Amino acid sequence: MKSDFSAARAFIAVATAGGFREAAKTSDMSASSLSGAVRRLEDQLGVRLLNRTTRSVTTTEAGAHLLHRLQAAMSEMEAALESASEFRGMPSGTLRLNVPLGVARLVLPRLLPGFSKAYPDVRVEIIAEHGVVDILAAGCDAGIRYNDKVTKNMVLTPIGPSRQRFATAASPAYLARHGYPLHPQDLDRHACLPAFVGGGHPMPWEFEKEGEIVRVEVQGPATVDVTAVDLAVSMAVDGCGIVHLYEEWLQPQIDSGALVPVLEPWWQSFDGPLLFYHGREHVPAPLRAFIDYLCPHRW
């Protein structure tokens, strides 16, 4: 049997008020509309629900039983709706983010501790992978990528650093043996430690100076997947070759003297990462809380 919820609500209003005119005063329906709705419900159920006289309207035994059940059901529905609306104002639940390794390593550590303290009821799940990703198919609330890897028609929010640089460095021992490259093309004569994504071809190293862009296909004693670039850094520190990564990744070794900057005037800068997600309406409360947290926490 197909349910007629509007007729059920009309019946509750009339039975509770004790009359059609009385119910119409607190309803968005006229007395005649209420009468028609109740009659429709009675016809649908095949049972009389109300005793009607010129002076009053009372429930039949079937009507009293139905009223009791409907009132309990309506109370449960209102409680369920109220419970759902609480998620709008009280962030809790799970926030699933799909991010590249560089963001997981260099950006999120500066954001998540403070966010977790501000929103202790939000549990953050991080899925680290590279390339263009369909965040809905991946079961994620949002993704973080650099602009060339962001899916089209997404809402974008800057996250973390406004600008970043790729840095190139080698150990003092390596440079003492092989000398400093003075131009990116000089890297053809050096041992380099390139990275690749998912078993693909090693990514070229890109440099820029005064509007001139130079891309170099480098080679060396090892090619390392981007998920294991710590190995490339370790090999560079041990004097095996030149490494080219995010500046933040190499800065601790540069600060300690384990690595020395190379070709610094050619280090290419680029825009920082972006948080992207579907639509501006009905954003889940954990994601909305994270977006609001990002604005004052950029660098």
UniProtKB/TrEMBL annotation:
Keywords: DNA-binding, Transcription, Transcription regulation
UniProt xrefs under InterPro entries: LysR-type_TF_proteobact-type, LysR_HTH_N, LysR_subst-bd, WH-like_DNA-bd_sf, WH_DNA-bd_sf
Domain HTH lysR-type: 1-60
GO molecular function: DNA binding; DNA-binding transcription factor activity
UniProt key word GTP-binding: no
Any Pfam family matching the protein: LysR_substrate
Similarity annotation: Belongs to the LysR transcriptional regulatory family.
PANTHER family (UniProt xref): HTH-TYPE TRANSCRIPTIONAL ACTIVATOR TTDR-RELATED (PTHR30537:SF5), HTH-TYPE TRANSCRIPTIONAL REGULATOR (PTHR30537)
Protein name: LysR family transcriptional regulator
Taxonomic path: Bacteria, Pseudomonadati, Pseudomonadota, Alphaproteobacteria, Hyphomicrobiales
